[in-house]
């Protein structure tokens, strides 16, 4: 079987499962067997809902600036920063004045995100 | 417990477990519980050894260009491209003339990469 279907691009708006996480927060999700990638766009100054889930999460700040809220701490992040969020730790983000893009990685995959939809699951 | 130890930066050469994968290929590894990140630098025109492992792998081309060899196919990749490599599929990469940087994600973590060392494991 050709591997070509396994190739994607961060900037291709037509690829992935679209999800509106909340006002000003959208993502495109790419499910795998043991991990799931989520390419999140956050509008300027938009903030997500504090939430947690049992799956481990990693985030990579691709563009912009943000404040990361995780485990009761607020940590400013900039392009190139990345972080691990252990399962069960409450977290969210607020984008800086230019907005931001984040690559989120879930392991194992979040089952609720295997189809297009709305909300943080 | 503070979450600050969970924060890193792609460009911080002092962070992560250093591994020399092969001539012209080095990486810094960040192990988690269910996933492991690996920030790989490939020198201009350097090529890795074809190999496979049971863990699922994802790669994100952070900088530069490369040829991705996967499952008997050669696919040119550029900044922003990302791909999934299912467990057991043979793969490697050859950097383009300016070299490249790749973020690799392993799920589950590759146990051999939990400590600094040499080789593809």
Describe the 3D structure:
Two copies of one chain form a homodimer. Chain A is an all-beta fold and 121 residues long. The first copy, chain A, has no helices and nine strands. In chain A, a hairpin with a 2-residue loop joins β2 and β3. The interface between A and B is large, with 39 and 39 residues.
Q: Return residue spans of chain A where pLDDT drops below 50 for at least 5 consecutive residues.
A: none
SSE string of chain A, helices as H and strands as E: EEEEEEEEE
How much is the average pLDDT of chain A?
A: 97
Radius of gyration of chain A, taken over Cα atoms and rounded to an integer in Å = 14 Å
| Count of extended strands of chain A | 9
Q: Beta-strand percentage of chain A? A: over 45%
Count of DSSP H/I helices of chain A? 0
Structural class of chain A: mainly beta
User: Multimeric state of these chains?
Assistant: homodimer
Task: Please summarize what this structure is.
The structure is a homodimer of 121-residue chains. Helices cover 0% and strands 56% of the residues of chain A.
List the helices and strands and how they pair.
The structure is a homodimer of 121-residue chains.
Chain A: E1 7-9, E2 17-22, E3 25-31, E4 36-42, E5 56-70, E6 73-78, E7 81-85, E8 91-107, E9 117-118
Parallel strand pairs in A: 2-9
Antiparallel strand pairs in A: 2-3, 3-4, 4-8, 5-6, 5-7, 5-8
